[in-house]
Amino acid sequence: MSENSTVKKNVRVRYAPSPTGFLHIGNAQSALFNYLFARHYHGTMVLRIEDTDVKRNVPHGEDSQIDNLHWLGIDWDEGPDKPNPKYAPYHQTERQDLYHRYITQLLDQGLAYKDYATEDELTTMRDQQRAAGEAPHYDGRWYGRSVADQQAAEARGLKPSIRLHLPANHEYAWDDIIKGHVAFNSDNMGGDFIIEKSNGMPTYNFAVVIDDYLMDITDVLRGDDHIANTPKQIAVYEALGLKHPNFGHITLIYNPKTRKKLSKRDKETLQFISQYKNQGYLSEAIFNFIAFLGWSPEGEDELFSREELIERYDPARMSKSPAYFDQSKLDWINAAYIKRLDLDDMTDRVLELVDEGQTDVAKQVKALQLPDLRTLTSQVCKIYQTEIHQLSEIMDKVLFYVTILQEPLDYDQLRQFDRTATLAVLTAFRKHVQALPVDVATPDFKKMIQTVSQETGVTGRNLYFPLNVAFTGDHSAPQIDEVLRLFANSTIIELLTKAIAHV
Fold it and tell me: Of the four, 146, 289, 377, 395, which is 20 to 30 A from 8 by CA?
């Protein structure tokens, strides 16, 4: 364990997703750095579900988050599935009584107050402020109002929200784990902010404080887009007389072309972890890649196992600069991990994708219902393992070779070679395949190619390229003798006959 691992004791961090859909790569980044932080310091990682925004929650959203985190290789010590009685429950919707207790405390101390302003009134207020060249802010119109005013508002059927009162010209500051010293002035925070909505649900900035405090969270690592929330949360901590945890704001992920934060409108970049899984990226490659989005180790190495990343992780090396999503780097990392796979493991992973059927090609391969799909997939993996960047490419190849007689192969490439030599090679090869005994299950195609070369006197590219085109549709093909083992002899003969006819 590296030297800085001994500095922090009793570390407790949390990843707190909302069950509003799939695991986004930005959320996965936050989860991963919390995981590395907890594991590096032998601390505790908590999974907490922030589900108070009921309208945005989706069916099975929580299960999707958990499944994708597990696939990515991130686990936790406490959560809905691993409750610690001291800290449970782990769903915010089950913690309403806890929030209300602290809301009542702030109201009783005069540090929070009821606000009966309607949405129309607030809209008018903000419009007037903009017209006057002011930044929109709550003007405190209900702070200090009498009980009689409140009763009159309620008599009109108005339900109040609860706002925290901010002291004037007060500094909320912290030493950020990543960004260094950060400070906000209370006069520039948009005025007194809501801590409980009119429907009785706590706002994010209030509930998260109570949860982090009651769960003994020591360090909060989250995306840089939360930095404006932090002073509000510190304001809640101070109003309640509580010590706040350490905060660290992780750099966001940016599109290198637009130089803007990666958004769901970036169609050229996959946004969700499930999409990477379905396309055949390896979980260990994605883990490795995301770890470099906002952090870098000492040295030049770029490929690390999960255990190595835990060992090498150092929050002091977290980046303040934007993390740019480099698709070519991701593909390179994934290809490197694919090359390391055991052939059986690689085959298993491809077949799992086929069985799940989440992409068009997976559905097509599954629909073939091939009795020998595992054998065929293993053979294709062996041929292309060193050349592909995603496992989906293996599914593409399997589908291609199974349906090759219906594929429009580009025989025009045969025109690049001497016509007489090409015909001699293709014709001689067809003759040898036609002469094969019926009981020969696996012909020695490498030896057969050598025999054809001796008979025709054709060698090198003039020998191999026409064969490549005939059996793959591309003059550049790997291990053509291995490719030939994917076909029945009758298919080989038919492919040769098509190529000869074209020449």
Answer: 289
Q: How many CA atoms lie within 13 A of 49 on its CB side?
A: 25
> 18 and 101 share a domain?
no
**The pair of three-digit structure tokens given for residue 395, joined into one six-digit string:** 């599914």
Which residues have CB under 8 Å from 444's CB, separation 6+? none
Residue 43 lies in a domain: yes
Return binding residues.
264
Note down the domain range covering 47: 10-82+252-326
d(CA 399, CA 397): 5
Domain total of the chain:
4
Which residues sit opposite 250 in a β-bridge? 223
Q: Please tell me whether residues 153 and 262 are part of one structural domain.
A: no
Distance CA 294, CA 36 (A): 13
Let me know the angle formed at the C-alpha of 87 by 82 and 92, rounded to the nearest 5 degrees.
Answer: 90
CA distances from 220 to 15, 309, 313 (A): 9, 20, 16
Task: Look at the block and give the residue holding tokens 């999707």.
Answer: 64
CATH number at residue 182: 3.40.50.620
Please check whether residue 439 lies inside any domain of the structure: yes
Q: Is residue 384 part of a domain?
A: yes
- The verdict on 106 and 183 lying in the same domain is yes
Assessment of whether the complete model's pTM goes beyond 0.70: yes
Task: Specify binding-site residues for ATP.
Answer: 264
Which domain-ending residue is among 196, 216, 249?
Answer: 249
DSSP one-letter code for 396 = H
Per-residue pLDDT of the chain (503 residues; tens, 9 = 90+): 444 444 678 999 999 999 888 899 999 999 999 999 999 999 999 999 998 877 788 888 899 999 999 999 999 999 999 999 999 999 999 999 999 999 999 999 999 999 999 999 999 999 999 999 999 999 999 999 999 999 999 999 999 999 999 999 999 999 999 999 999 999 999 999 999 999 999 999 999 999 999 999 999 999 999 999 999 999 999 999 999 999 999 999 999 988 888 877 777 788 899 999 999 999 999 999 999 999 999 988 999 999 999 999 999 999 999 999 999 999 999 999 999 999 999 999 999 999 999 999 999 999 999 999 999 999 999 999 999 999 999 999 999 999 999 999 999 999 888 999 999 999 999 999 999 987 777 899 999 999 999 999 999 999 999 999 999 999 888 889 999 999 999 999 999 999 999 98
- As a dihedral over the C-alpha atoms of residue 95, residue 100, residue 103, residue 107, rounded to 10 degrees, the angle is -170
